[in-house]
């Protein structure tokens, strides 16, 4: 009988997909990402760092893909990632210019941090 993904597995998959999609966008076009999130342009060194960040996020997404179930370590990594990114983006939005997707990204990361943290807590109890 095939494994049916649990709610925890689905939450981990959604969080990993978000990280991977962000990584792909950063890898493909750091200037577009900067305009959408920060409302600003990047210099060439900024684009290079953006591409590097994209590679890191793709690696995180692949490492955290639940196969067949999400581990406590994967859930911990996704919780910390979403919590820190949500906090950093909120700080950036409160201190400087914001792109059209900054605040939706903050909401998404905070929501994912909450959901993945709940799943992490449940997985630790099991």
Summarize the structure.
By secondary structure, the protein is an all-alpha fold. It has five helices and no strands. The chain has one domain.
The structure class reads mainly alpha
The biggest sheet, with number of strands, parallel, antiparallel or mixed sense and barrel status, is:
none
Query: Which strand-content bin applies to the residues?
Result: under 5%
Mean pLDDT: 95
**Number of H- or I-type helical stretches:** 5
Secondary-structure element pattern, one letter each: HHHHH
> How far apart lie the N and C ends?
22 Å
Task: Indicate the percent of residues in helices.
Answer: over 70%
Number of domains: 1
| Rg measurement, Å | 15 Å
CA-based shape? globular
The overall strand count is 0
Enumerate the spans where pLDDT stays under 50 for 5 or more consecutive residues: none
Description:
The protein is 78% helix and 0% strand. α1 runs antiparallel to α5. The protein has one domain. The chain is an all-alpha fold and 126 residues long.
């Amino acid at each position: 009988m095939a494994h049916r993904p649990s709610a925890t597995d689905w939450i981990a998959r959604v969080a990993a997909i978000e990280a991977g999609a962000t990584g792909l966008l950063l890898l493909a076009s750091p200037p577009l990402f900067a305009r959408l999130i920060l409302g600003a342009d990047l210099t060439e060194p900024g684009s290079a760092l953006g591409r590097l960040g994209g590679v890191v996020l793709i690696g995180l997404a692949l490492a955290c893909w639940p196969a067949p179930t999400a581990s406590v370590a994967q859930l911990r990594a996704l919780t910390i990632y979403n919590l820190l990114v949500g906090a950093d983006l909120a700080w950036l939005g409160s201190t400087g210019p914001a792109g059209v997707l900054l605040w939706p990204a903050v909401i998404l990361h905070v929501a994912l941090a909450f959901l993945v943290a709940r799943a992490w807590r449940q997985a630790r109890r099991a």
